[in-house]
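Journal club prep — side note

Before the paper discussion, L.F. wants everyone to see what a predicted structure for a comparable chain looks like in token form. Sequence:
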Amino acid sequence: MAQKKLLKIAAIQTFVSKNSASNLIKALSFVENAARKGAKIICLQELYRTVYFPQYKSEKKDDYAETIPGESTRAFSKLAKKYGVVIIVPIFEKRKNGYFNAAAVIDHTGKLLPTYHKIHIPQDPLFYEKNYFNQGETGYKVYNTKYGKIGVLICYDQWFPEAARMTTLAGADIIFYPTAIGNIIGDKSFEGDWHDAWETVMRGHAIANSVYVVAINRVGREDHLKFWGQSFMCDSFGKILCRASSTKEEFLIGEVNLSLNRKIRKGWGFFNNRRPETYK
């Protein structure tokens, strides 16, 4: 049996106000508390510093965007170096070639690693993301950190099995999904329970790929949307390890055993028995 490799990781879910400065201060406090509790990899929610502005069709992008490096990454780099932790910081990034829904990844020394840009961009009522975000062209990234190999995908990416598979094939042991998702106020979905589908699809990715999955969602009402929180972690066979509240801000800490991935993958043959030549 493979030797256990235990690791504490954390997910931060918060309410978001219109004051970006206070959102930054609050997120720094939550991350620092998680680090003090022993978490070695800490992930914030999608667009952690801004209200979910894509529910509106035509907001001014520069009112919400920042650069990488920038104010957020400088602040979290100091914290990462102080505590020797890896921090994932999802922001709305302004670049010379456009605007991106981005995840900045900072290693345990405070060094900024290559940024991931959200690849799949939705366009639905109250989720008008194509009005704001360029499609990511950076590809699926895996970060070989001091504490393990991690992948980062963002929100709508979580509905696509190809994204999870490509990230796993690149070597990820944990996939983090920073997210901003909830229900439209007053809308009764004909499909059924959105939250149940959201959690189920990611647990499916965990099972199919023998990887840990961590979903980090915001919480609270923002105008027409009510975000349901319930950030969660599941193991590499889809078992829920811990789940956050549907109504409260909190940091969620879980302990993962990365050796479980290889044991499950070997036992079930999910990768040994693949037929890539048929997947065209």
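L.F.'s comment for the group: Residues 7-269 form a domain with the Nitrilase/N-carbamoyl-D-aminoacid amidohydrolase fold (CATH 3.60.110.10). Keep this in mind when we get to the figures.
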